[in-house]
Write a structure and sequence with these properties.
Specifically methylates guanosine-37 in various tRNAs. Keywords: Cytoplasm, Methyltransferase, S-adenosyl-L-methionine, Transferase, tRNA processing. It is an enzyme of class 2 (transferase). Its main location: cytoplasm. There is one protein chain. The protein has 2 domains: 183 residues, 3-Layer(aba) Sandwich (Alpha/beta knot), CATH 3.40.1280; 75 residues, Trp Operon Repressor, Chain A, CATH 1.10.1270.20. The radius of gyration is 22 Å and the shape is elongated. The two termini are 38 Å apart. The protein is built from 9 helices and 11 strands. With 274 residues, it is of the alpha/beta class. Helix 4 crosses helix 6 and helix 8 crosses helix 9. A 5-stranded parallel sheet has the order 4-3-8-7-9. Strands 1-2 form a two-stranded antiparallel ribbon. It is 35% helix and 16% strand. It binds S-adenosyl-L-homocysteine.
């Protein structure tokens, strides 16, 4: 890491509204630092993989924050029930709107009202598919609240009432929203300033510029009879950049005709503007 930002921000502000159990598991609030609030039935699943490597180090260094909101604590009765059978019958259980509503009210208390500043998202296979542009948009907000569903999902009135943005990790069905939340937080956090050591690597990688990335190689120079492409060993930066651009275009064209069409259209309008 080349970043030399001080570890302590010197602006810790412990909010007196936190319940004791939350004080034990969540770090105190760092004013102005991007924060993910995650509503989940499985708080032990967090930070999960986000606690490792670059995102984990950044979390420790206070470059982003995580607040787990335990849906179970908002449950009803002795057993803290959060779900009930689906209206109209059918298999499975549905998360109750009153329980989820109270958890959302708690999460959004004190967060900016403007959703551009603080998106409120439900992880859902019915949502708009998550992509790099969404990660970029979220990284520019002050934080985000994510709702992880379980069972058959949440009562639809909650989504309507709060005007919740539904976002999907892809066209498949997971058992719960937690893995999707971690994937999306990872993609967003690595775009925050100072999280990755090398800001250039963000600009060049897949999806950043509408192309998939060129192939990567490292030593040894020859492995099982396969050499590294000669141009990469030439030390000629101009030629290397040209080769990488060509490879990125070739791979995008072969693997993602949809991206290739969009890329070419964007190039055309750019040329027309000049
Ligand atoms: N009955 C629902 C699926 C429920 S899956 C349906 O058919 O649409 C249980 C939970 O897993 C969901 O509430 C959601 O939070 C999460 N989930 C499942 N697939 C997902 C995906 N592709 N992207 C994001 N979250 C997903």
């Amino acid at each position: 890491m080349t970043d030399s930002a001080p570890k302590s921000h010197g602006r810790l502000a412990v909010r007196p509204t936190l319940k004791p159990s939350e004080l034990m598991t969540n770090t105190p609030d760092l004013a102005g630092v991007w924060k993910a609030k995650v509503i989940t039935l499985f708080p032990e699943a967090f930070p999960g993989v986000l606690g490792e490597s670059l995102t984990g180090k950044a979390l420790q260094d206070g470059k982003w924050q995580l607040e787990k909101i335990r849906l179970r604590e908002f449950g009803e009765g002795k057993h803290r029930n959060v779900d009930d059978t689906p209206a109209g019958g059918g298999a499975g259980m549905v998360i109750r709107p009153d329980v989820m509503g109270n958890a959302i009210d708690f999460a959004m208390n004190g967060a900016p009202q403007d959703r551009a500043q603080w998106p409120l998202v439900y992880l859902s296979p019915r949502g708009k598919r998550f992509d790099q542009a969404t990660a970029k948009r979220w990284s520019k907000a002050r934080g985000i609240t994510m709702i992880c569903g379980r069972f058959e999902g949440v009562d639809d009135r909650v989504l309507f009432h709060y005007g919740i943005e539904e976002v999907s990790l892809g066209d498949f069905v997971l058992t719960g929203g937690e893995i999707a939340a971690q994937a999306m937080i990872d993609a967003t956090v690595r775009l925050l300033p100072g999280v990755l050591g090398n800001a250039e690597s963000i600009e060049e990688e897949s999806h950043a510029n509408g192309l998939l990335e060129h192939p990567q190689f490292t030593r040894p120079a020859e492995w099982r009879g396969l050499p590294i492409p000669e141009v990469l060993m030439s030390g000629h930066h101009g030629k290397i950049a040209e080769w990488r651009q060509k490879m990125a275009e070739k791979i995008t064209q072969e693997r993602r005709p949809d991206m290739w069409d969009a890329y070419q259209a964007a190039q055309k309008t750019q040329k027309a503007k000049k």
